[in-house]
Design goal:
Blueprint: H1 5-30, H2 40-53, H3 61-88, H4 100-120, H5 122-126, H6 130-144, H7 149-158
Bound molecules: the ligand C=C(O[C@@H]1C=C(C(=O)O)C=C[C@H]1O)C(=O)O.
The site of ligand ISJ has 11 residues, from helix 2, helix 3 and helix 4.
InterPro entries: Chorismate_II_sf, Chorismate_mutase-related, Chorismate_mutase_periplasmic, CM_dom_sf, CM_II_prokaryot
Pathway: Metabolic intermediate biosynthesis; prephenate biosynthesis; prephenate from chorismate: step 1/1
EC number: 5.4.99.5
Length: about 160
């Protein structure tokens, strides 16, 4: 049977939540190193990849890029929030430093799955019920992922560009 609107919107939201959660590892990889939170070159690579794959999935490239802009802003919101937390409370700072080179391929995989689900949700994202469905899905994701306020805010940002009307 085809996935229901709620199922597909849930899958999209859960993927966005996993992308928000992985920002913890990105922040831990960069904190205390010269690598900046913002990497415009890496961001542009993602936007170019998304824009080139969108038409093959029936998506408007500009719409797909707008969605990913929200994912990336959400990721950086988490990184900045964690930096502030770790600066204020050094005891909470990570004690091991993950390798960004191992995290980015995971993000690439999430990006691919997000693009697939973005295409699968085109109808529900254009529906009048989208904002309510999206809010419910984000609230459930906050619970499932045990998000604190910072990560819940980031998921709110990540899902702010989901509904197309
Ligand atoms: C996640 C990273 O940090 C930032 C956020 C990005 C993203 O969400 O994909 C990409 C580049 C950086 O601006 C990273 O450097 O990989």
């Amino acid at each position: 049977a085809p996935a229901s609107a709620s199922e597909s919107l849930w899958r999209l939201t859960d993927l966005a939540a996993r992308r928000v959660a992985i920002a913890d590892q990105v922040a831990a990889a960069k904190y205390g190193t010269p690598s900046p939170i913002d990497d415009p070159v890496r961001e542009q690579q993602i936007y170019d990849s998304v824009a080139s794959r969108a038409p093959g999935l029936g998506l408007d490239p500009a719409d797909a890029v707008r969605f990913f802009r929200a994912q990336i802003e959400a990721n950086k919101l988490v990184q900045r929030g964690l930096y502030a937390r770790w600066d204020a409370h050094p005891a909470e700072a990570p004690t091991t430093r993950p390798d960004l080179g191992q995290i980015r391929p995971v993000i690439d995989g999430l990006n691919t799955n997000l693009l697939t689900e973005l295409a699968a949700t085109t109808a529900v994202r254009a529906s009048r019920s989208c904002p309510v469905r999206q809010r419910v899905a984000a609230d459930v994701a906050d619970l499932v992922h045990r998000f604190d306020v910072l990560h819940a805010q980031a998921l709110g940002e990540a899902t702010s560009a989901t509904c197309s009307e």
